[in-house]
Amino acid sequence: MGNYLYDAEIQRDFAEIRLANERARLVKEERDASLRVELASTAARLAEERRRAATSRLDRDLRAAFFTANPAATEEDFERLWPQIRDDHMRAAAAAGAENVFDRIRSEAFEREQETLDRRSRFEKLLEEV
Fold first, then answer.
1. 71-82 pLDDT tens trace
2. Ordered DSSP codes for 16-58
3. Do residues 62 and 89 make contact, with C-beta atoms less than 8 angstroms apart?
4. Are residues 2 and 26 in the same domain?
5. Total of domains in the chain
6. Which of 89, 94, 97, 91 has the alpha carbon at shortest distance from 59?
7. pLDDT at 15 over 90
8. Residue-number span of the structural domain to which 52 is assigned
């Protein structure tokens, strides 16, 4: 009988320990989930701030370029032409970006072709030796 009570106490202690561990795990999971949400929110906010800062710099630079290139221009001229200036800049930047992508693709294709030619050359040399 004494052993039975002792075993029951041990089992109750283990159950309490398991329950405490489970509670700690759930608290940690909840904290981790809230941290992930907070990090995602912070990342989105920082990305938006970087986008706004970049847009602001672009607007400022395009404005300065416009007035430098057109010293007689007025503020009204700039406001009237602003949508076209920005659109032209975005088109030029997109074209330059596309050109960079095409250059990289051409370069990679050239490198792959060179590797193929090198392998062929080595294979042909091996065949000549045989």
1. 999 999 999 999
2. HHHHHHHHHHHHHHHHHHHHHHHHHHHHHHHHHHHHHHHHHHH
3. yes
4. yes
5. 2
6. 89
7. no
8. 1-73
